[in-house]
Amino acid sequence: MTAQLIDGNALSQQVRAEVAKRAAALTARGLKPGLAVVLVGDNPASQVYVRNKVKACQDAGLHSVLEKYEASMSEAELLARIEALNTDPAIHGILVQLPLPKHIDDHKVIEAIAPEKDVDGFHVASAGALMVGEQGFKACTPYGCMKMLESIGMKNLRGKHAVVIGRSNIVGKPMAMMLLQADATVTVCHSGTADLGAITRQADIVVAAVGKRNVLTADMVKPGAVVIDVGMNRNEEGKLCGDVDFDGVKEVAGWITPVPGGVGPMTITMLLVNTMESAERQLGQLG
Ligand SMILES: Nc1nc(=O)c2c([nH]1)NC[C@@H]1CN(c3ccc(C(=O)N[C@@H](CCC(=O)O)C(=O)O)cc3)C=[N+]21
Predict the structure, then answer these.
(1) pTM for the full predicted model
(2) What confidence score (pLDDT) does residue 287 get?
(3) What is the number of structural domains in the chain?
(4) Which of 10, 60, 147, 257 has the fewest CB atoms below 10 angstroms from its CB?
């Protein structure tokens, strides 16, 4: 193995310790940061994720509320709950766990969240703010990837070529924007890209965010490149694995993130950071 590991669990611990300090300072000033997590239906994977998020909040000294509803909940009922959370002074962040049951329109629900509480960074106002460099909330997964780059001394990416594989609204597109904001030269590849390997071989940084195993193999990586794996897939044995052929790529790359223990824990960490930030902004407004 030539690549060094970017350890998402270790970095998360560091960042969460900072969040805990800031949360304690805010709490001492009478404002405990609060996150509401809304879960509709009984998707077993969602149950686990949501529990992890609530636990991470508690560990960092944030207030958290878990609202669980039956899969049969109507869209109107859900919208009414969001409206109530929008005006609840104890809540600074609202996360509606996706996917939602089919009879509920995801987009409509996300747009109902007050942008100043959109700690997932999914609202069009958050996406727009990122695009034009205004204050908003950054989507947690790409934000966590940026933190991982920063942790290995790659904060300013001037002169670097970053290649993002995937163009989803929640990872690929905001990832490209954040890399651009850090001064990287950015290429976005996707299912319509002709010769993916020819492009990724030019990259100093590759972010794989497709949701398919072995999208990136050793022959597609420039020696010494940084490889960030956003994928969350299961192999034949049901084991969690990413989009990157880890065993092959680790022999070529300079740095690599594992799955599990990479981007996943950082996603939750940045949710805490955003919730903190939201509470701090509110205090700033109160003076
Ligand atoms: N509104 C919304 N916001 C989300 O951020 C959101 C969502 N909906 N729906 C589902 C996905 C998925 N997601 C994960 C976060 C952390 C891990 C994570 O920490 N994974 C661990 C391992 C978990 C395991 O072992 O299963 C790891 O990679 O080490 C995984 C998945 C957030 N999501």
Answers:
(1) 0.97
(2) 63
(3) 2
(4) 10
